[in-house]
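User: Before I run my own analysis I want an independent prediction to cross-check against. Here's the chain; please return only the structure tokens and, at the end, one sentence I can use as a sanity check.
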Amino acid sequence: MKLESNVFLFPGAFFLLVAIVYGTLTDFKELVGFPAILLSAGLAFMIGIYYRMLSKRHGNRPEDRDDAVIAEGQGDQGLYAPWSWWPLVVGAGTALAFVALAVGWWIMVPAVIVGAIGLVGWVFEYSTGRFAH
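Assistant: Structure tokens:
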């Protein structure tokens, strides 16, 4: 996963450099471009650092090696909830949030509530009930 981490760390460094140059050229008075480029750098660094941590935790995967065989990658790849209804609730909250942008900000309150309920339900789906572990 070192390749994946570098795919995000190098653009993060580039965005950080561009943000500093952009801020210097505008005397840090332009309050949209500089923070936007800085946030882009932060997003790229977050993803790159996350992949770097996964690389240290899991080691080399079969697809990272040139001498690997396809059969080495078989088996479970993760835990997924195939019959979960919570993504629908999160999607409804997101749809309400976009409606709030077009209609009125007061709709954002129920959108945040519905989205938070859906997100908490989705995260804790396997912590309660029949599938608890």
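Sanity check: Residues 33-58 form the longest helix (26 residues).
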